[in-house]
Amino acid sequence: MRYKILSVFAAAAAMAACADLTSINSNPNGPQDLDPPSMLASALDAVGSGVDGVDELNVRGAGLWSQYYSEIQYRDEDKYIMRSGTSGGWGFYSGALEDFQRMIAKGQAASHPNWTAVGRIMKSYTFSVMTDAMGDLPYSEALKSDTTLQPVYDTQQAIYNGLFADLTLATTELDAAAAAPPGDPVGIGFATGDLLYNGDMAEWRKLANSLRLRLAIHLTNVDSTKAAAEAAAAVTGGVFTDNADNAIVTYLAVAPNQNPIYEDVHVGGRDDYGMSKTYVDSLMHWSDPRLSVFAQLNRDTDTVAITYRGLPNGLNDGEGPKLFYISRIGALWRETPNAPMPLLTYSEVLFLEAEAAQRGWIPGSAATFYNNAIRASMEFYRIPDAAITAYLADSRVTYVPDSTGLKQIAYQKWVSLFMQGMESWTEVRRTGVPALVPGCRAVMRHIPERLPYDDNESVLNGTNMTAAVTRQGFAASNDIAKPLWFTKRTTSTTYPPPVPCP
Amino acid sequence: MLQNHKRVNSLYGSASFGYREWLTVDVTGRNDWSSTLPKGANSLFYPSLGAAFIFTDALRLQSSWLSYGKLRASWTRVGNDTDPYQLAAIYDCNPWGGRPSCASADRLPNPNLRPEQTTGEEIGADLGFFRDKLILNATVYQKSTTSQILPVSISATTGYTQKVVNSGEVRNRGIELALTTTPIERGDFRWNVVANWSKNSNRVLSLFNGVSQIIVGSFWNVNVTADVGQPYGNLTGYKWQRDAQGHIVVGDDGLPYRDASQVALGNYNPDWVGGITNSISYKRFNFSFSLDGQYGGQVYSVTKWFGQYSGVLANTVAGRELDWNNPGYIVPNAVYSNGQPDTTHVLAQDYWHNTFYAQEPGIFDATYFKLREARLAYALPPSVSRFLGFSDATFSVVGRNLILWAKQPTIDPETAFDTGNRQGVENGQLPTARSIGFTMSVRP
User: Fold this and answer.
1) Distance CA A391, CA A389 (A)
2) Per-residue pLDDT for A437 more than 50?
3) Is it the case that residue B325 has pLDDT exceeding 70?
4) Sign of the Cα pseudo-torsion (B345, B348, B352, B353, in order)
5) Domain assignments of chain B as residue spans, ordered by start
6) Domains in chain A and their CATH numbers?
7) Nearest chain B residue (CA) to A338
8) Least CB-CB distance to A30: which of B35, B93, B253?
9) Which residues of B touch A452 (CB under 8 A)?
10) Of B74 and B431, which is predicted with more confidence?
11) Per-residue pLDDT averaged across B198-207, rounded?
12) How confident is the model at residue A212 (pLDDT cuts 50, 70, 90)?
């Protein structure tokens, strides 16, 4: 036989369960849909850890450049050498911002104006930090993955306009919710997920107005008309009036919700940051009672030499005092897991009001706002009343109106914004106070003006990013030398290296 | 514990036909229904057809030099589904104290995925010469994968860092050769050689939505990318900025600038891979050794990039031979942005820390060859084996990974860092262990 069939084989496997294939692919590991109260805690945690954490927006960037901290090891950013992969909070886009955007949409779909309003307020807070850090950003076309994979960059001015509009809209939405009949769930909102205010919508309204005031004052140099109008409207709408209003993420004693400064040291095993000599010396010079809260004593083996001592910023690895001579960040954060991480405080609001009053934009006495601002900061850190009174009685602290007053406000604000490196750096760039001198080995003779865009934008959204880089006159996406729009400056004040350099 | 459930239902059939002793034809057909794909797009049919023709038998072509000749040809289509749960995302929940606390996913799911499909054609020949003293196997193939299911990076400004897509078409073409020969066989002496060599070239013909580049994996700021018109697997990152003559451009501080945008710095695919095993026997002794390696291709070495950053590699000594901070280092062959030659001394520490900006200093040629194994064996005489109670016994000395010759020093480029899309990246890999040992094999 010439032809033969060597083999024929047929089989059917697992035909029985054919009908139910689709349901097998339903992921059992988590919920596919959720209401905003279950999302808010996670997103607020992300903002707290991002804005006040150890990364670029606080310890390893903005706060280093405000000279609160210094790098005691891996001294790159302290010399203004940026590592790849650093940015001014790019991770917020796919993290907290996406969640806030969903809260806005879900609130609208379910007619829960509180969900929408809280989403808007936190989205605005987060975007304001990012634009202050980086400049122009995808904003109006961002967070639209269903339609736009490559969003255009809006100018910082357009973003600020959007933030003011959104914050105003949020307060209106909160009004609508408040008007709902008692017992109506529309009026309740967020009790479970709200780490800031436990669902108290009156506090959220104050936060919206306080943030609006902060952003108004940021525009003082570049658009004083807009700044004046927004500041007045914010104060009229009702800002923080007590430390109890503070927007603070209070972390927990147990893992994994411990504060990021503590986690870095006690979970991550890192010890890369100490106090800056600039800040420690400044507080010592002014006999500031908050120094023992903000910094720890050093660990000098000679017990009579134990003191508060900072490391000069911008030295090479190995230069300057040995590590145990350098004070670390205060025990309130570094050694205490359940620490408060401030996002916006009553003390800052009072400083903002002091400046607005000094400029004649709101009624009231600048001196009173200023004194109360210092007092609010000290009371928050539980400084005894006698020590506060003594500090305020120091003739150097006493408010002198007009241009001296504006400098005093800026200086005292720099002192009190400790642990909020991002806001501090923004105000230093706006006011030039204090006049911070780059460290000896810094590769640039003025403090950085911005943080880089994400490295991969050049690949993933290159055309739009390049347009923004060109429009703002940056040398590249990671240019950290060019002042941003809100400062109104086009050049930076440069300083020669301190002498002697170690 | 994360659960991962997937089910594939299948129908499978195959048939094989023979004509005389010299022609066989194989046909297969298979249909899968996968739970991982959307309803309506979850059915995958993949057939294959193959034939083999022993022409030396059919045409009676055996001669003193050609002892065996077979031609093969086949056409196959293979469908592929994906991992479970790519069609919809879930929230990641980690309670905050007692409060629910859930975050949205970073990977944008795709409810409209289609199966991916690979179609391949190959022809080949198996030839035996000189009474099979020389056997040659040769295959030429082409494979084309369409609708490849990939998680690709997207701009985080969308709210997501990745999106699952059906990408376009990737084509592979290649040639594989294998040679088995016995050049000398005389009395008690026998020398055997087995050699193989292959070359594969691939090309990304299209991606999705008119996109010309996608990031398929990232590690330490280097991206593994697919670029239209280029081989799959480019290693993409930042280079130093250069002027028209190729000089590195430094700032007034003497440190190199990074380029404005990322470029392909290399590709992990080798030009070719090959290996050869020699085996020489004389009486009771046998000596064999195997060499193999790859020529071409690049590797991104995080080990070296980081070693340079932290100053632990020998090439970072320049500029600090005398003193930690002095006399410093002048970037070789560099100019300022005005074109004047660079004369600025920078601290070695600053220069190498500045390399953290760019990925160019981490790219290396991955060419290597290895003396993978050498073995000397001695078969004990039958009388001795029997005395020991065995029918035969062999004693050998074996050395493995004896010599690595790599184009760059420091690391072994044969990296197995990742089994997914993130190929061509090396990170802190331990060198392959060299071992020398003795073995005794016996048969009762």
Assistant:
1) 5
2) yes
3) no
4) negative
5) 1-211, 248-444
6) 36-242+409-487 (1.25.40.390), 269-334 (no CATH)
7) B97
8) B93
9) none
10) B74
11) 94
12) very high
